[in-house]
């Protein structure tokens, strides 16, 4: 529970497809396994630190009252040590089994998530998830670096897609739990603005995501499978956010939230499938 495994799954769904695109084929199974393991350890450590930092406000929110540090199932000291152990294990594994660049990127995501988002922005700015979301986009960089030991425009575009996808994804969930965040005095956008105002910003970010996903088609020189997927799935994502503006309800917000998860997975899977098909694999 400390590592938030469901969030880790969402983060890592971008890693393997990115590795396939970077390789222009299938990387070695061993490389994919150790990269995913290293990424999971780093993300788990970051999430553990987040629970350690937020243990005071987690008790104030219905959604988080069952977390281990709130119930007392785990002591704060044990959680902190566990998080440190996970980060050390992640860095050593990626450094020794993959490369130093991937290890540094994974740890940088943790540092950003802990110090920039959790300790600074989350409780002070309505733009918290906008800037803090950068940490969740780093797995794409890690996947690319694991294969190429370098970074270029392509992985940064993948990073950007996830970065701009994060606000509409998370704000949709925050609409449902706005009262929780209000009780904890966390200024998530739906707490300090109306659903309608939040929906307008969600639409803007989704348009950027759609544009970036199409730009990737030209940079990576992918084929029709990816182009069609980016336009169709992105169009559906945009339509859901537009519907939220027309029907600013909690039910519609959750439709945006659930579809956003599917969208990210489908987009990256389509990218990987396109490469494998074009390479005849």
Summarize the topology.
Elements: H1 5-12, H2 15-23, H3 29-53, H4 55-58, H5 68-71, H6 76-97, H7 100-121, H8 128-132, H9 134-148, H10 153-176, H11 178-183, H12 189-192, H13 195-220, H14 224-246, H15 250-278
Helix pairs in contact: 1-3, 2-9, 2-15, 3-6, 3-7, 3-9, 6-7, 7-9, 9-10, 10-13, 10-15, 13-14, 14-15
Descriptive report:
The protein is mainly α and 281 residues long. Helix content is 80%, strand content 0%. The termini are far apart. The model has no long low-confidence stretch (mean pLDDT 95).
Number of helices: 15
Which H/E pattern describes the elements? Answer: HHHHHHHHHHHHHHH
Helix content: over 70%
End-to-end CA span: 38 Å
Gross CATH architecture = Orthogonal Bundle
Quickly list its features.
281 residues, 80% helix, mainly alpha, Farnesyl Diphosphate Synthase
In short:
The chain has 281 residues and is mainly α. Helices cover 80% and strands 0% of the residues.
């Amino acid at each position: 529970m400390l590592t938030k495994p469901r969030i880790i799954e969402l983060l890592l769904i971008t890693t393997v497809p990115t590795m396939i695109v970077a390789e222009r084929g299938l990387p070695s199974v061993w490389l994919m396994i150790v990269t995913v393991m290293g990424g999971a350890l780093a993300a788990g450590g970051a999430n553990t630190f987040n629970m350690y930092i937020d243990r005071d406000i987690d008790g104030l929110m219905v959604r988080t009252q069952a977390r281990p540090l709130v119930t007392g199932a785990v002591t704060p000291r044990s959680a902190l040590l566990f998080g440190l152990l996970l980060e050390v294990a992640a860095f050593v594994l990626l450094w020794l089994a993959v490369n130093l660049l991937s290890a540094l990127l994974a740890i940088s995501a943790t540092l950003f998530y802990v110090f920039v988002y959790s300790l600074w922005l989350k409780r002070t700015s309505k733009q918290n998830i906008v800037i803090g979301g950068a940490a969740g986009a780093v797995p794409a960089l890690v996947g690319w670096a694991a294969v190429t030991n370098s970074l270029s425009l392509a992985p940064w575009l993948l990073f950007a897609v996830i970065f701009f996808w994060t606000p509409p994804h998370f704000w949709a969930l925050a609409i449902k739990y706005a009262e929780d965040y209000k009780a904890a005095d966390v200024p998530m956008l739906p707490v300090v603005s109306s659903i309608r105002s939040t929906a307008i910003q969600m639409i803007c970010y989704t348009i950027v995501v759609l544009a970036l996903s199409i730009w990737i088609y030209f940079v990576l020189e992918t084929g029709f499978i990816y182009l069609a997927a980016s336009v169709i799935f992105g169009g559906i994502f945009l339509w859901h956010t537009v519907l939220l503006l027309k029907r600013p309800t909690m039910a519609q917000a959750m439709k945006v939230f659930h579809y956003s998860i599917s969208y990210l997975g489908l987009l990256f899977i389509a990218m990987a499938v396109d490469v494998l098909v074009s390479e005849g694999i």
